[in-house]
From TrEMBL:
<keyword id="KW-0378">Hydrolase</keyword>
<dbReference type="InterPro" id="IPR029033">
    <property type="entry name" value="His_PPase_superfam"/>
</dbReference>
<dbReference type="InterPro" id="IPR015797">
    <property type="entry name" value="NUDIX_hydrolase-like_dom_sf"/>
</dbReference>
<dbReference type="GO" id="GO:0004081">
    <property type="term" value="F:bis(5'-nucleosyl)-tetraphosphatase (asymmetrical) activity"/>
</dbReference>
<dbReference type="Pfam" id="PF00300">
    <property type="entry name" value="His_Phos_1"/>
</dbReference>
<protein>
    <submittedName>
        <fullName>NUDIX hydrolase</fullName>
        <ecNumber>3.6.-.-</ecNumber>
    </submittedName>
</protein>
<dbReference type="Pfam" id="PF00293">
    <property type="entry name" value="NUDIX"/>
</dbReference>
<dbReference type="GO" id="GO:0006167">
    <property type="term" value="P:AMP biosynthetic process"/>
</dbReference>
<dbReference type="InterPro" id="IPR051325">
    <property type="entry name" value="Nudix_hydrolase_domain"/>
</dbReference>
<dbReference type="GO" id="GO:0006754">
    <property type="term" value="P:ATP biosynthetic process"/>
</dbReference>
<dbReference type="InterPro" id="IPR000086">
    <property type="entry name" value="NUDIX_hydrolase_dom"/>
</dbReference>
<dbReference type="InterPro" id="IPR020084">
    <property type="entry name" value="NUDIX_hydrolase_CS"/>
</dbReference>
<dbReference type="InterPro" id="IPR013078">
    <property type="entry name" value="His_Pase_superF_clade-1"/>
</dbReference>
<feature type="domain" description="Nudix hydrolase">
    <location>
        <begin position="9"/>
        <end position="137"/>
    </location>
</feature>
């Protein structure tokens, strides 16, 4: 995912979906002021990441608490001001519990919510860019890979360099920038609602995911199998760690080290029957504090990787 360009206006949203009477329905919003029908979305607030914006805007516009699923692409169009607007979208499955807990009431921004079939949504939506995003979601439905879970592969934040550290390598701490990156990661990774956090026992890894663990109430499982010490010594257990996460089928964070990341991505591909390719190296080539999200089918994980998205460190490196 590219970094923001200052001259553009950035926004994010999601195609919210659920199964009603055996058929996939999507949520459209009827906007009060404009009198149009759109996919829920909104502009990025200062300091926010795009995934964070998508989850927040959906909650504000619809009252629904969602976790992000597969990325659906972006739409670009010009504004009357002459600036370009860029909107990033994801799929987001809505649970019945979330529907029951929705706090939505008609207001000055959104007049009504409506769950409709994909076919009807195409005729309802007021703008062609929205229809293109809906079509991207429809392709997932046709491929029967709508229900997914994610493995979020994280490289630890910026750490004190080896040359400036005289203790054990595993004890090297994060720099001030690394601590900032960890705080930014917390709010961004939470957009996928991870249910498990697995980390190398190294201080720089555990500290990177500690803010996330505190924010979502999920304990950190320290696993030597994805540590750099184990990798360097040739007795890592990346296959065991990754295999378990694929087998369990729940969204999880895996925080590790630069040399280990290609092995983690490779094992995810092998565990899901996905042909290896350059995408593995691309997804593993992460700067400190960055992460890749690997989306897998929850109903048939062996059908292969559905999508991969990569996000830069937040905040951006100085």
């Amino acid at each position: 995912m590219t970094r923001a360009v200052e001259t553009a206006v950035y926004a994010a949203g999601a195609v919210c979906w659920r199964v009603i009477d055996g058929r996939v329905h999507v949520l459209v919003v009827h906007r009060t002021v404009y009198g149009d029908v759109t996919i829920p979305k909104g502009k990025v607030d200062p300091g926010e990441s795009l995934p964070q914006t998508a989850v927040r805007e959906i909650a504000e516009e619809t009252g629904l608490q969602v976790a992000l699923g597969v990325p659906l692409g972006e739409s670009r169009y010009g504004l009357p001001s002459g600036r370009e607007k860029v909107v990033h979208y994801w799929a987001a499955e809505v649970s019945e519990k979330a529907v029951q807990r929705s706090t939505f009431r008609p207001n000055s921004e959104i007049a009504a919510l409506e769950w409709v079939s994909i076919k009807r949504a195409r005729s309802y939506l007021s703008y062609e860019p929205d229809v293109a995003i809906l079509d991207a979601f429809a392709r997932l439905v046709e491929q029967e890979v709508t229900t997914t879970f994610s493995l979020l592969v994280v490289r630890h934040g910026k750490a004190v360099g080896r040359s400036g550290w005289h203790g054990a390598d595993a004890a090297r701490p994060l720099t001030e920038l690394g601590v900032q990156q960890a705080a930014g990661l917390s709010t961004t990774l939470a957009a996928w609602s991870p249910q498990r956090i697995v980390s190398s026992p190294a201080v720089r890894c555990v500290t990177t995911v500690a803010p996330l663990a505190a924010a979502i109430g999920v304990p950190i499982k320290r696993d030597e199998g994805i540590s750099q010490d184990a990798w360097d010594a040739g007795h890592d257990e990346v296959r065991r760690v990754v295999g378990k996460r694929v087998r369990v089928g729940r969204t999880a964070v895996l925080c590790s080290h630069n040399p280990v990341l290609p092995g983690i991505l490779r094992e995810i591909a092998l565990a899901t029957g996905t042909p290896l390719g350059g995408y593995v190296d691309d997804a593993a080539a992460l700067e400190p504090g960055a992460f890749s999200v690997v989306h897998l089918s929850a109903t048939n994980p062996s059908s292969g990787i559905v999508a991969i998205e990569t996000h830069p460190a937040h905040p951006a490196r100085a």
